TrEMBL record, chains A, B:
InterPro entries: HTH_LacI, LacI/GalR-like_sensor, Lambda_DNA-bd_dom_sf, Peripla_BP_I. Gene3D superfamilies: 3.40.50.2300, lambda repressor-like DNA-binding domains. CDD domains: HTH_LacI (cd01392), PBP1_LacI_sugar_binding-like (cd06267). This is LacI family DNA-binding transcriptional regulator. It comes from Sanguibacter biliveldensis. GO terms for molecular function: DNA-binding transcription factor activity; transcription cis-regulatory region binding.
DNA sequence: TTGAAAGCGCTAACAG
DNA sequence: CTGTTAGCGCTTTCAA
């Protein structure tokens, strides 16, 4: 499959490489005759420009990276879908990186492995520490997603986790619930995400004069519905009682619903349940799920905007966009 | 951020570019002294090899593309996660492409836009026609996923859809169900996927002497739980009755469960429901979902194997791997 | 074991 | 409006 090069097209058309290049890149100043001639040659030879060579020559890769822990998690899947669409519409390709549960992998994202491969990175860190983040910041523009502190000089986009946590807890309190469990934070090594949600949760309880019972903080050893089901199940079996469950995310909520159902506990009658992320399936669970709705569109768009500015050469201080959120009220914790 | 080049390292270390290159690429024949010297210089200057330049020089990109319609769909999300992990473990990066509902986009995947960007493509087509597929096959190695016919010479990996459809239909028949609806195929322009599942479905019904009632083929105008909920809801409201629903995929099944629940129809007592794909959430729906379980691991691994052989230069005829499947029996259509 | 130099395919000054 | 030419940063014969 001898590849056809710009050179070959030039010869075939009897013009210079520059002219072919001009045609390929839709340069304005090419005579119509020449243009059609060149186009004919391109067609005849089946020429396709080599993206790699172009990259090397221009220095722009036209590629962005999205790094999340695991795209099989519905929230990240929806985020990836959204970012991918946006990237395409703005003329970028999208490289997908999964960091799993490994801090190493998160570091590698920042170090960029081999650099020069992408113009910028949209990165939702899960486990890496703040100072690590700061240390590994490289020349490649980065926008941080999710929550947690960010090193100075780095752009971030996130919803106000603490406020959202407070709101959805208040929603539970308005329902008259007083023994509210928190489900799904990490048993060891609390993530920034969990920390913020917990903090809003506790603040709301305190403000309402409700008790914050440490026994009601049900940690899990994984971010998964299975782990949540297990944790909630074990708690119930040990005799623990509560009338509401604030779940760290929709997946934990799904596991919680499952644990409750298997034990004949009615939702929302006996226990009201809330999730976080408002992924599609929350509208199809049984019961449907009350959950925090982040404005994913706004989030994705902001991230792309900030990143494009950095790619475009912006060198200023870190910007911090707070994306809007709302509470999607459904059956698992209806309106009062 | 003046980039550090191989050249710079060479000068700093007082050796030639070739030597630095040798060190960077772990070439065997470099004297330990030289090596450590070079490594020191690399460290000192903070050198990172430029991937693009390397690509241009070697011709290998070290990148694979995965093209699916939409990664926010759970099955594709789980597929992408799996393929991404595999790709990483084999030393590739993964470019994510979403084709949405557009045949154009699917063509573009094959044409490769600008080529030379990836070594190979794993592609699950949704809408493109067979002859289109054949016409647009290019120099870039491709492995086709999903179902449907493939042009000669192209590698494919899929489960035996027709057989799986037959099996899960038989499961429903063993439960004594006789009026089985089919939910979720396209109203216009049946996809190859739907066609095969329908054909296995109908074959099983016929073999059992059950009736194939055209009124029970509930098409939807999108591949989504909403669309399925709508279609099933409309059918029920119009007085249509059935005792089982074979859903084209898990999302359609979720929508079906929802429609049934809203109308007080009990699952599985009144209507048994089955899905397809066995995505994570099927274990947490209420009721949990009986569904076709494709061996995703086998599927992903096979696709990678075939692709790597092609990338490695294999030019033989198309291979066709049939990945194993099974039926995951859960509450929505329990064992007889 | 290491060095010199010729590309990989394209872009972009700079001339013409 | 079009041609010439020098890189982009790395790999890779071929010599030394």
């Amino acid at each position: 499959m001898a590849r056809v090069r710009l050179q070959d097209v030039a010869e075939h058309a009897g013009v210079s490489m520059k002219t072919v290049s001009n045609v390929v890149n839709d340069y304005p100043h090419v005579s119509p005759t020449t243009r059609s001639q060149v186009l004919a040659s391109i067609e005849a030879l089946g020429y396709r420009p080599n993206a790699t060579a172009r990259r090397l020559a221009t220095g722009r890769t036209g590629t962005l990276a999205l790094a999340v822990s695991d795209v099989s998690l519905p929230y990240f899947a929806e985020l990836a879908s959204s970012i991918s669409r946006l990237a395409t519409s703005r003329g970028y390709r999208l490289l997908l990186e999964q960091t799993g549960e490994s801090v190493e992998a998160e570091r590698a994202v920042l170090l960029g492995g081999e650099s020069g491969l992408v113009d910028g990175i949209i990165f939702q860190p899960s486990h890496i520490a703040l100072d690590d983040l700061a240390r590994y910041t490289t020349a490649t523009p980065v926008v941080l997603l999710g929550e947690g502190d960010a090193p100075e000089g780095v752009d971030t986009v996130m919803i106000d986790n603490t406020a959202a946590a407070r709101e959805i807890t208040e929603h539970l309190l308005h329902l008259g619930r007083r023994r509210v469990a928190f489900v799904g934070h990490e048993a060891h090594g609390l993530s920034a995400t969990s920390r913020q949600r917990l903090s809003g949760f506790e603040a709301a309880l305190r403000d309402a004069g409700a008790q914050v019972d440490p026994a009601l903080l049900l940690a899990t050893d994984a971010i998964s519905p299975e782990a949540a089901e297990h944790a909630v199940g074990a708690a119930l079996d040990s005799g623990l009682r509560f009338d509401a469950a604030f779940c760290r995310d929709d997946l934990a909520a799904l596991g919680t619903l499952s644990a409750l159902r298997r034990r004949g506990v009615r939702v929302p009658d006996d226990v009201a349940v809330t999730g976080w992320d408002d992924v599609t399936l929350t509208r199809f669970s049984n019961p449907t799920l009350t959950t925090v709705h982040p404005d994913l569109d706004h989030l994705a768009r902001s991230a792309m905007d900030l990143l494009e500015e950095r790619v475009g050469g912006y060198r200023g201080p870190g910007r911090h966009v707070v994306a809007p959120h709302s509470i999607s009220v459904r059956e698992s914790a209806p309106s009062a």
